[in-house]
Hints:
Number of domains: 2
Shape: globular
Number of strands: 0
Structural class: mainly alpha
Order of helices and strands: HHHHHHHHHHH
Oligomer: single chain
Amino acid sequence: MAPTETKPGNRPYHHGDLRRAILAAALDVIAADGPAALSLRDLARRAGVSHAAPAHHFKDRTGLLTAIAAEGFGLLADTLREASDLKDAGVRYVRFARARPAHFAVMFAPELLRPDDLELTTARALATDTLRDAVAAVRSEDYGVDARLASVAAWSLAHGFATLLLGHNLDAAVGDKDPEEVFRTLAATLFRAL
């Protein structure tokens, strides 16, 4: 069917990239109301297509959430790739979570995803490798602990801070300060302590 044709019932067929349109609409829903609010039928209605159209691209809700997580891990890898050191990687991690809260909400919810999906496992591995590159600069003698433990501490700090920030649990503590600067201060404090 051409983009300007109509489907039975005179509902216009979605123009352009339906897969991208469904992903964008899903990200809006997740950002506003969380992953639990996601419905393929509602997304089809928003896109002006039949309720079966999203299933053509994603099969089901789990497939859609898996595609969102895979995209998120790819975007996270791109964000982390330019980090100058482990602390900068943490700042970029927090920045990513703030800029893409819907991706972030889905990426770390394995119960919502197809764990064996090739696109997801590939994107997750890419993000992990990129983070591992930032960790490679950490030397045990710099912190007095195993470099792997230092990287776990750094990831825990960045992920925990981002999660608490997105949940508005740090509103009073952060106030009107730049969250990235607050994170830099926390990271500097943590690694001084190590």
